[in-house]
TrEMBL record:
Residues 88-112 are annotated as: Disordered. It comes from Gracilibacillus thailandensis. PROSITE patterns: HTH_CROC1 (PS50943). SUPFAM superfamilies: lambda repressor-like DNA-binding domains (SSF47413). It holds the Pfam family HTH_26. Residues 22-77 form the HTH cro/C1-type domain. Residues 88-97 have a biased composition (Basic and acidic residues). Coiled coil: none annotated. This is Helix-turn-helix domain-containing protein. The lineage of its organism: Bacteria, Bacillati, Bacillota, Bacilli, Bacillales. One of its GO terms (molecular function) is DNA binding. It comes from the Bacteria.
C-alpha cells in the first residue's frame, strides 16, 4: 500500500501513522477491521475510534494486541518508515533532551 503523503515526505500525527500502519497490515493480510477486532480482542468500537482519528492516543496494550493479531511483535508494528514521519519527532531530539536533563542534574548537584 503506497501512501502519497509518505512519498512526498509530509508529516503525520502519531494517530495518523498508527492508522496508516493498521490499514497497511490489513491490506497485506487481507483482513477487515472486524476480523482484526476478533483476532486482537480489541473491541470494534475502539478500533473504529482509532481508525477514524477520534482516539488521539491509542493505549500501548491496544497496539500490542493489534500487532499480535497480525502475527508480529509490537516492535515490528512500529518498525515502519511512516513512524519516522511523525510531527515533532526528530532524530536528535531524544539526545538533546537527555543532554539537557544531565546538565540540569549536574547543576543541581553543584548547588548542593
Amino acid at each position: 500500500m503506497e501512501n502519497e503523503n509518505q512519498n512526498k515526505g509530509e508529516m503525520y500525527s502519531m494517530v495518523d501513522a498508527v492508522v496508516y500502519r493498521i490499514n497497511d497490515l490489513c491490506e497485506k493480510n487481507d483482513m477487515s477491521i472486524y476480523e482484526l477486532s476478533k483476532l486482537s480482542g480489541v473491541s470494534q468500537s475502539t478500533l473504529n475510534e482509532i481508525m477514524q482519528g477520534r482516539s488521539k492516543r491509542p493505549r500501548l496494550d491496544t497496539l500490542v494486541n493489534i500487532a499480535f493479531a497480525f502475527g508480529i511483535r509490537p516492535r515490528d508494528f512500529l518498525d515502519h518508515p511512516v513512524f519516522d514521519q511523525i510531527e515533532g519527532v526528530h532524530d536528535r531530539e531524544p539526545q538533546e533532551r537527555l543532554k539537557k536533563h544531565r546538565k540540569k542534574q549536574e547543576n543541581q548537584e553543584d548547588q548542593e
